[in-house]
Amino acid sequence: MAGDDYEEILKYYQLHGTIGTGGFAKVKLARHRLTGEKVAIKIMDKLALQDDLPRVKLEIDAMKDLSHQHICRLYQVIETPKKIFMVLEYCPGGELFDYIISKDHLSEEEARLFFRQIVSAIAYVHDQGYAHRDLKPENLLIDEEHNLKLIDFGLCAKPKGGLDYHLNTCCGSPAYAAPELIQGKAYIGSEADIWSMGVLLYALLCGFLPFDDDNVMAVYKKIMRGKYSTPNWLSPSSTLLLDQMLQVDPKKRITIQHLLSHPWLMQGFSDAVQWQSKYPLGQLDEDCVTELSVFHEQSKETILKLITEWKYDHMSATYLLLLSKKTRGKSVHLRFPCVTKHASTMMSTGLEHSRPDAQLEDTEFILSTPVTRKVASKKHKNKENVETVSALRNEVPFALTAPKSPFAKSQTETQVQAVPLRAPPFKESQLTGVTPVKKPNNPTNADELASAEILCEGRCQSVELDLNLAHVDSSQKKRKAKIFGSLERGLDKVITMLTPSKKKRYTRDCPRKLKAHCNITTTHLLHPDDLLNEIIIVLSKKHVEYVQKGYTLKCQTRSDFGKVTMEFELEVCQLTKPEAVGIRRQRLKGDAWVYKRLIEDILSSCQVNWSVILSVSRQKHP
């Protein structure tokens, strides 16, 4: 049964909102129960993967081999009959691509800092015998310390004969592909990576691509000529380095070894780029091992044996997350997890309407005359607006007015038990056996989970609650309402009288409060509804289909043949420092540079005084 696919992942993680989608995957933000650490979980449907399944297996194998300070860490892999879950390091800074957009282009000093990290990661990857073959700003994430992490090894290659062995598969993104790939020649993977790194460095320094055109064949012709413009703000040393990397003849390109100590990369630094891993898998941290030993009431030797097997199971994940906490100066302690009473039976029915990874294609987008949003009325203030698809399945989908949650009442009617767990002595074959002790628990708004610390003493807040509620039989709810309705109404009045207004839960009748970030454009508007209404009007004029959910607009564009070519989110938000109204942008699917131009067009068309001048592509390419 499909529900069983999620049962395993929900034992260890609390799933929250979707933070990205791809051709065959969805990425969700989650929190590890024992450490409280945020993670990103890549969820893939095996049936949808079809011919791409070997590519996923290749990516998993590569990430198990690679452990480097500038490569996104793999924590755990869970495979079920229908799903593959990859638990990955969460990088809150988003894609390097979004950072480039926010800056128009980077200064030489900042580009150098980032590029040293890219060179470090690629030198390590090559040393391990791999070629990445899909280097681009979208595949580099920014962590909370503003460092880069390389992702997406689905197209990587590890030739059996070593990196000098020729490859034949033409893969990667056209704009970053080396000339020899386009020409269909056999090529050396490491040499092709150097070309892609040159395109990437150009994008950092210039804010646009060296070889760009709306027509793919025109892009290929430009790449094979190897001619590109050099903006006047590029320094002679930057121009020289780009020329050394973007050589059409791969044998004339600079090597990764020479890049490590190249004069341009050494400016402002006393040492060459350090490419060796700071976190080799063979060296285990004693404090983390001790904490696991105490928590599971087992000897250090037993814990060491389990960790060093590197099965990338829950033991691997817990150790690596503890290590991550320690490197960031946080305490190395495990907490007692909270799970819901019905964790073993959730999602047993109606999965078509309630699965957490439901795609946008399952719903009907609207493209019509915009309905403007009024200031939220008081009657909606106490309504919960659950994020999970399962809890919204009976709602009239995607109306352009303030959303109403059909489960707002059923959440108050349904009592869910939380189960705080003691750490049991574990068996080597299973580390998750527990003895539950029931404790009352109240559901809260799912949107609070992404920012709030999830503590065992507090509420057990996750999509599990929504999934449980989604499968409560409606007739049971009606009978319950008849018997207890009057009592609950009276109780609600008492609760309302005794609850201070300052403790009212956040709802979608007001925008989220966010910190200023590279993917947020700020305005001088004072009211978020004004900005929301203006964007809705522009989307309709631009023939962009959208779905409104509170202050978030899920948008998509289609080709002339009806195929979805782009998916992205625009969310009106309230900034805390400085106090302002802004728009958060997030690309979910589609070409990054096409997305860039579309977003610039949408925002520049709004009758809004933006705090930051939008960068519109203005450079003509030869």
Automatic annotation (TrEMBL):
It comes from the Eukaryota. It is found in: Cell membrane. It catalyses: L-seryl-[protein] + ATP = O-phospho-L-seryl-[protein] + ADP + H(+); L-threonyl-[protein] + ATP = O-phospho-L-threonyl-[protein] + ADP + H(+). Residues 559-608 form the KA1 domain. Its main location: membrane. Transmembrane segments: none annotated. Keywords: Apoptosis, ATP-binding, Cell cycle, Cell membrane, Kinase, Lipid-binding, Membrane, Nucleotide-binding, Phosphoprotein, Serine/threonine-protein kinase, Transferase. GO terms for molecular function: ATP binding; lipid binding; protein serine/threonine kinase activity. GO terms for biological process: apoptotic process; intracellular signal transduction. It is a peripheral membrane protein. GO terms for cellular component: cytoplasm; plasma membrane. Residues 13-265 form the Protein kinase domain. ATP binds at K42. Its EC number is 2.7.11.1. Belongs to the protein kinase superfamily. CAMK Ser/Thr protein kinase family. SNF1 subfamily. This is Maternal embryonic leucine zipper kinase. The gene is MELK.
